[in-house]
UniProtKB/TrEMBL annotation:
Gene3D superfamilies: Endonuclease Chain A. Residues 234-352 form the Phospholipase D-like domain. It comes from the Bacteria. This is Phospholipase D-like domain-containing protein. InterPro entries: PLD-like_dom (IPR025202). Coiled coil: none annotated.
C-alpha cells in the first residue's frame, strides 16, 4: 500500500523485480522469518523466485517442480534459513535442502522478514531487505490482501542508516537463539563491520521489536514527531485485543502524539446469513466504550466494496499504523497488547504524504465472527525446557538434546521415551543428549516421512512436542508416484549430456505426464512403453549408461564423493538405486524383458566397480549380482545357450561404436 493510493501486485512479483534489478548477481544466502509456514508452498512458489531465471522452465506440477529445484540446487546451492513459530501447526514436510528453525520466544515469533545476500562474478555483494504482513504460506502470498515493502538494494558494508540498527538487532536475536543457520551467520558476519551511510530524512526506517527489550511502543515514540493534536491515528489490523482496550488505545495515542484513534472494522460479506464483523462481539463492545476510539471503514472504494459471491474472497491481513501526512508504519504489528509489548515483530516506518484512508461508520454490525488464525499445537507445556532434534535419512539416526545446557539441569539421570504419532511410547529409554538408530520398519520412521515433529515423554510424565530438523533428504523414501519405470530412469540420464551434474528440469517431463494423468478423473491410465525390439531397447540403455558412467567418473575425479554416493544409494527417480529397485520389484505391468534386465544389471555392476572404494557402490554391486544370479537360474535365461549371452555381452556392454566389430556367429541348426 503506497503513501497516497492503493497499489495491487503480488509479493513474488515484487521480489523478482528487486532481484532482476541487479543483473549479473545471484542469490547466495537467504534468511526468512515468519509466524506460520507451509513448506510445500515455500518450495514451489517462493524459493523459485531466488533462482537466477526465476520459475521459468519449471514444471507447474508441485512434486515435479520440487524435484527440478532439488536438481538445480545441487549445481548452484543457496544457503537458506527459515525461522518460524514453534507453536503453529505446520502442514507437510520439507523436501529441499534448507535449514528450518522452530522458535519459541517469550511472546509470539510473529515478525515477517526477508533478507537476501547476492553476489556477482567479480565478488561484488548486495543485500535486499523486505518486511511486511505476509506469512510464508499460500494465503499470505496468493490469497490475502497484504502490505509489504522492499528497501532499495544496498552494499552490506555501507547500509542505509535507517536499516542497519534493525538488521543488526534481527541477526543478533536469531544468533542468540542458539541455533543460527549458515545463512544467518554469513549475513551477520558481512554486516559486522558495516558503517551506516548518511542519514536521509525521507528514507524508511526498519524496526525489529524483541521480547523483553525495546517494545514497539517505545521504538515508535522515539521516532515520530508529535504534531497537531487534532490529527487522528489510523490503524488497520485484522486481529484485535481481547482486553485492556482503553489502556492500549491510550498507549498508542501517547506514543504518537494523537488524540483520537480511528480503527478499521473488518466486514466479511461472504458469510451465510449476511455480512459479519470479523471480531468477537465482546471486544467490539469494549473498544466502542473507549471515548478516544471510533470504528471506521475504508474510504478507498475498491477496499470498501463488497464483492460478488462468485468472486474469490480476500482476507485483508495487512497491518498499518499511520498518522496521515506524517508517518506510516507497515509491518506485522496487530492491534493487540502482545504485539506492541511482548512479541517479536518487524516492519518499516515511512514519511507519509497521503490523506486519511478511513472514515467513521456508526452502525453496529448485526453479526460477529472472530477471524480465524493459524492453528497452534494443543497440549504443549510452555514450562518445559526447549528441546532440539535432528534426523539424518542417510544414517537413520535421530538425535535429541536440550536447546541449552542449563535446560538439562535436574534431568541428568532421567529416562525419556519417544512417542510416535499414534501416541505409542518407544520401548527403549533415553538419557539426553541421545542418538537413536530408527529402523525402517518402526512407526517413528514412517511418521517422519510426513510429520516433522516427535513427542518426548519426560521422566515426570509431562509430554513435549519437538521439532525435528531433517537432513539427508535425498534418502527419504519417496512416494510411489515418484518411482518411474526403468526406461524413464534411463531417459533421465540423457540430460547428463548437457554438461551439468544431475538430472535437469526437462529430464522429469515424462514423470510429469504420468503424475498429471493420475490426477484426472474418468480417464484411462497412460499407455505403457511402445513395443521395441532388443536393439532399440539396448540402444536406449547403451547411450544412457555411457553418459552416466562418464559423468560419475568426472565427479569422482573432481572429488565430489557425495554426488557419486547419491546415485548409488538415494531413492530418487534418477538414481542407480531406484533402477535396481525397479528391476527387482517392478510395478504391475512394467516387468522388464529378461535379456534387457540382464544387460542393464551388467552395466550397473561395471559402474559399481568403477567406484568400489565407496561402500554404497559395493552394496549396490552385491544387490545387482544377486539378481543377475536369479535371472540366470530362471526361465527364460536358463534355456538360452551361453553363446547368445556372450554375444549380447559383447554387443551391448562395450564403448559406443565398438559393437560394429562384434561378429554374430549363429550355428546352423537342422530343421526336423
Amino acid at each position: 500500500m503506497s503513501q497516497s493510493a492503493t497499489q495491487w501486485t503480488m509479493i513474488k512479483d515484487a521480489l523478482r523485480r528487486e532481484i532482476e534489478a541487479l543483473p549479473g548477481y545471484r542469490v547466495t544466502h537467504a534468511v526468512f522469518t515468519t509466524y506460520a509456514f507451509e513448506p510445500e508452498f515455500f518450495e514451489t512458489s517462493i524459493l523459485p523466485q531466488l533462482l537466477p531465471d526465476g520459475e521459468r522452465n519449471l514444471s507447474l506440477h508441485s512434486m515435479v517442480r520440487r524435484l527440478q529445484l532439488e536438481s538445480i540446487l545441487r549445481v548452484s546451492p543457496i544457503s537458506i534459513d527459515v525461522y518460524f513459530d514453534a507453536r503453529v501447526v505446520m502442514p507437510g514436510c520439507p523436501l529441499l535442502p534448507y535449514e528450518m528453525k522452530a522458535m519459541r520466544p517469550q511472546g509470539e515469533f510473529h515478525g515477517k522478514v526477508i533478507l537476501l545476500r547476492l553476489e556477482d562474478q567479480a565478488g561484488g555483494v548486495r543485500c535486499i531487505l523486505g518486511s511486511g504482513s505476509a506469512n510464508l504460506t499460500q494465503a499470505g502470498w496468493w490469497e490475502n490482501i497484504e502490505a509489504w515493502h522492499f528497501a532499495n538494494a544496498f552494499d552490506p558494508s555501507r547500509p542505509p542508516a535507517g536499516i542497519l540498527p534493525g538488521i543488526t538487532a534481527l541477526l543478533g536475536f536469531l544468533a542468540e537463539s542458539g541455533q543460527p543457520g549458515e545463512a544467518t551467520t554469513t549475513l551477520r558476519s558481512s554486516l559486522a563491520q558495516a558503517v551506516a551511510a548518511g542519514t536521509r530524512s525521507d528514507e524508511p526506517v526498519f524496526g525489529v521489536f524483541l521480547p523483553a527489550r525495546t517494545t514497539f511502543l517505545e521504538w515508535l515514540k522515539d521516532r515520530v514527531k508529535t504534531g497537531d493534536d487534532a490529527a487522528p491515528l489510523e490503524i488497520i489490523s485484522p486481529y484485535f485485543a481481547e482486553s485492556g482496550h482503553a489502556q492500549l488505545t491510550d498507549a498508542l495515542l501517547d506514543a504518537t502524539g494523537c488524540n483520537r484513534l480511528d480503527l478499521w472494522l473488518p466486514i466479511d460479506p461472504w458469510q451465510a446469513g449476511g455480512p459479519a464483523a470479523l471480531i468477537e462481539e465482546s471486544s467490539y463492545d469494549k473498544s466502542t466504550a473507549v471515548d478516544s476510539l471510533r470504528w471506521c471503514e475504508m474510504k478507498d472504494v475498491k477496499l470498501a466494496a463488497s464483492r460478488g459471491r462468485d468472486e474469490t474472497p480476500r482476507f485483508l491481513h495487512a497491518k498499518i499504523i499511520r498518522r496521515p501526512g506524517e508517518f506510516c508504519f507497515m509491518g506485522s504489528v496487530n492491534f493487540t497488547n502482545r504485539a506492541v509489548r511482548d512479541n517479536f515483530e518487524a516492519g518499516f516506518l515511512f514519511p507519509d504524504q497521503g490523506e486519511a484512508w478511513l472514515q467513521p461508520v456508526a452502525v453496529k454490525p448485526v453479526r460477529f465472527l472472530k477471524a480465524s488464525e493459524p492453528a497452534c499445537h494443543e497440549g504443549v507445556d510452555e514450562m518445559l525446557p526447549e528441546l532440539r532434534a535432528g534426523f539424518d535419512w542417510k544414517t537413520s539416526v535421530l538425535s535429541v538434546q536440550f536447546a541449552r545446557r542449563t535446560d538439562g539441569t535436574g534431568f541428568e539421570n532421567g529416562a525419556f521415551r519417544l512417542i510416535d504419532a499414534e501416541g505409542r511410547e518407544s520401548r527403549n529409554s533415553l538419557k539426553l543428549p541421545a542418538e537413536v538408530f530408527i529402523k525402517a520398519d518402526e512407526a517413528l520412521y514412517r511418521d517422519l516421512q510426513t510429520n516433522p515433529w516427535i513427542g518426548l515423554l519426560f521422566p515426570d510424565g509431562r509430554k513435549a512436542l519437538v521439532w525435528v530438523q531433517q537432513t539427508g533428504l535425498e534418502y527419504r523414501p519417496p512416494h510411489d508416484d515418484l518411482r518411474p519405470d526403468v526406461w524413464r530412469i534411463l531417459e533421465m540420464w540423457r540430460a547428463l549430456a548437457g554438461g551439468k551434474p544431475g538430472s535437469q528440469p526437462d529430464a522429469f517431463e515424462h514423470l510429469e505426464v504420468i503424475l498429471r494423468q493420475r490426477l484426472k478423473d474418468h480417464e484411462a491410465a497412460p499407455e505403457g512403453e511402445p513395443e521395441r525390439d532388443i536393439f532399440e531397447a539396448m540402444a536406449t540403455a547403451h547411450g544412457s549408461f555411457y553418459l552416466l558412467r562418464r559423468r560419475l567418473q568426472e565427479e569422482r575425479e573432481g572429488g565430489n564423493v557425495q554426488r557419486c554416493e547419491y546415485y548409488f544409494s538415494a531413492p530418487r527417480p534418477d538414481t542407480l538405486a531406484s533402477l535396481v529397485d525397479r528391476i527387482e520389484r517392478p510395478k504391475e505391468g512394467e516387468s522388464l524383458e529378461a535379456v534387457a534386465a540382464w544387460v542393464i544389471l551388467h552395466w550397473i555392476t561395471q559402474i559399481c566397480r568403477d567406484h568400489e572404494m565407496l561402500r554404497a557402490a559395493r552394496t549396490l554391486f552385491r544387490r545387482a549380482q544377486k539378481h543377475l544370479g536369479t535371472l540366470l537360474a530362471t526361465a527364460p535365461l536358463n534355456t538360452i545357450k551361453p553363446e547368445f549371452l556372450e554375444w549380447a555381452r559383447e554387443m551391448f556392454l562395450c564403448e559406443p561404436g565398438s559393437e560394429r566389430n562384434v561378429i554374430c556367429q549363429i550355428k546352423e541348426v537342422e530343421t526336423q
